[in-house]
Amino acid sequence: MGDRKQARNEEFQSFMVGRWPRLMRTAFLLTGEQHAAEDLVQSTLEQVYVAWRRVGSADDPEAYVRRVMINAHARKHRRRLKEFLAPRDDSGLVHEAPDTGDRIAQADDRSALLKALAQLPARQREAVVLRYWEDLTETQTAEAMGCSVGTVKSNAAKGIAKLRAIPGLAEMVTQGGRK
Amino acid sequence: MSADQNRNHDMSQTDIALLLADAADEVEIGIAPVQAVIRGGRRRRARRWAVATVTALVVAGSTGALAVTGLPGGGHGDRQTNVAKPPASAEARHVYEPQRTELARGTYKGKEWHVTVQVWGAPRNEAEADRQFDAMAELGIEPADARKPADLIGKISYFATRGWGENRPQQVMFNTVEKFEKYSGTDLEAAATRLGYGGESSGRLVIGIVAKTARQVTCHWKDGTTAVAEPTEGFSAHDTGSAIRVVDGFQGANWFVCTGPAGTSYASAEVTK
C-alpha cells in the first residue's frame, strides 16, 4: 500500500512539473497578474492532488485540471481581477500601432492585450483563452467551462469582437499581429 | 459572409492566438512548487475529513433523536438538542489530542518557522485529566495555573506555539479557562516573540487574538513601518507571514500573526478595520 501511495505521489509530481509552465501561462492570461496566476495554478493543483487517485488513472487528466482551474478562476479571481486590472491611469486601452521589433512597443502590445482581456466578462475571457490560447475545440472548451457548446461559441465570438474593437489591438491584428 | 471576409475573419483569430501566446510569454514560470502543493493538498484532504466527521456527527444525532421519538412512552424527543449535543467521547472532544491550526509560516535563516494554535478539550473527570496532563507533558507544553492534573478538569486549554527548524516548538500565548472569552470591537491581545532562536529576530513575530469581526490588524514596528494582517484561508507561496485566521475549536475570537522586517521589532498592534 505504501509503495502504491509513493508511486502515485511520484506520478503526480512528474505530472505537475510537466504541466506547470503551460498552466502558468493559461492562468496568467486568465488573471493578468503573476502572483494571481501562481495562486490559481497552485490551488488548482492542490485540488488535483486530493483527487489524484481518480484523476491520474483517468483518460484525460488535463481535462480535469482545466475544469478545476476554470472553476477556481470563476470563484476566486473574477471580482479581484477586475479591480486589479481596471486601468487606473488615463492610458485607457488606446495604443498606437507599434513598430515591429521595438521591445518597448512589444511590451505595450502585451499590456494592451492583458488589459483588453481584463475588460472582458470572465466567461468571455475564459472562452477566448481556452479556444485561442489553449487551442481547445468548442466541445473541449464547453467541458472545461461546464456549459454548452452554444454558450462557448457565443462567449468566444463576443470576446473576440470586443478585442477587435479595441483600436490598438485592431491595428495590430490588421497588420498581421506580432510574429 | 464572403470568402474574403471569411479569410480575414480567420486571419484575425489566428493573430489573436499569436498575440495571446506573446502575452502569455510575459509570465515568469519559475520552478514548480511541488512540495508546497502536496502540503496544501494534504491540508485540503484533512479539512475534507474534518467536514465529513462533523456531518457524520449531525447525522448520528438526528438518527438518535428519531429513535428516541419512536420509543414507547418516549415523549417528545428534542431533535434539535440531540443534534447540537457535544460529542461524548474524550477523543472526539479533543481531550488527548488537541485541534491544531497553523497560523503562519515562513523561512528564517534557511529554516522554516511556523506558528500553530492548539486547543485541548476540557477533561470531565480525573482519569481524563491525568491522560491530558501526560499528553501535554509529552509535547513539552505546560498549562497555565495547573500544578496537578485535577486542575484541568472542566477547563479548556489553548496554546499558541512557535517552532523553528527541528527545534521543539515553544509556547508563547496560552491559557486554561472554563469558557472562552468573547472578544468584540477592537479588543486585542498580543505577544511579541522571535522568528528563530537567536536574539537578533527578537520582536519580529507578533501573535495575538482579536474579535471575530476584525477585518484588519495593523502591527507597527519600531522603525515606523507596518505590517497588515487580514483574514486569510489556506496558504500560498505569496503569504506575507501576516494573517488573521479562524482557529479550530477556539470560540469567541480569531487569531492573528504579524511578521516584521529584519532590523526592527514590535512597537504596537491595533485593529484597523
UniProtKB/TrEMBL annotation, chain A:
Residues 112-163 form the RNA polymerase sigma factor 70 region 4 type domain. Transmembrane segments: none annotated. InterPro entries: RNA_pol_sigma-70-like, RNA_pol_sigma-70_dom, RNA_pol_sigma-E_actinobac, RNA_pol_sigma70_r2, RNA_pol_sigma70_r4_t2, RNA_pol_sigma_r2, RNA_pol_sigma_r3/r4-like, WH-like_DNA-bd_sf. CDD domains: Sigma70_r4. Pfam families: Sigma70_r2 (PF04542), Sigma70_r4_2 (PF08281). Residues 21-80 form the RNA polymerase sigma-70 region domain. Keywords: DNA-binding, Sigma factor, Transcription, Transcription regulation. The keyword Transcription regulation applies. It comes from the Bacteria. GO terms for biological process: DNA-templated transcription initiation. GO terms for molecular function: DNA binding; sigma factor activity. Signal peptide: none annotated. Belongs to the sigma-70 factor family. ECF subfamily. NCBIfam families: SigE-fam_strep, sigma70-ECF. This is RNA polymerase subunit sigma-24. It comes from Streptomyces diastatochromogenes. The lineage of its organism: Bacteria, Bacillati, Actinomycetota, Actinomycetes, Kitasatosporales.
